[in-house]
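Submission checklist for the structure archive. All mandatory fields must be present; incomplete records are returned to the submitter.

[x] Identifier: Thioesterase domain-containing protein
[x] Organism: Linnemannia schmuckeri
[x] Residue count: 166
[x] Sequence attached
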Amino acid sequence: MAPHNIENLEAWMQRMRDVGSRHSQNNEPGPGYAYQAFTTTKIVDADDDSVTFEYTVLKSDCTVMDTWHGGAIAGLIDNLTTSAVFTQKRKYFMYAGVSSDLHVSYVSTVPIGSVVLIECNVIKVGAGLANISAVVKDKASGKVIATALHTRFNNDSQIAAIAAKM
């Protein structure tokens, strides 16, 4: 792991934990789902264009049959592929941007308590869009659970304008 990669990524994840914690503690509307994702996910490895995370499937992530729900998978992929952009030294996407497309293919499922690896790869980061892919695998068996392609739109200028008014 290159030092700047892990520092940028850990700083981003800590900001997300702080925001989610503030909303949760004050019972305010906000990104509670992000708080859970960033407090229960562990960084395994990171470099200039990829990061691997480890995650344990929680009861709150599961269907009534105690298998990992597709919506929970998509939400986690959304947050973690976004985080992968923060492994790079970048000129654009100083903030996270917003999703413009998230395509997830569900290949198999795993039960509650399973440990999974989420391998995120930055395909390209440009001035307007970032493209990131992900593969979710069961850690024990290596079985692919889901694959994803995620496109983010850069809204740095809107965020900067809002921050300037505060």
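[x] Structure attached
Curator remark: The first strand starts at residue 41 and ends at 47. The mean pLDDT is 83.
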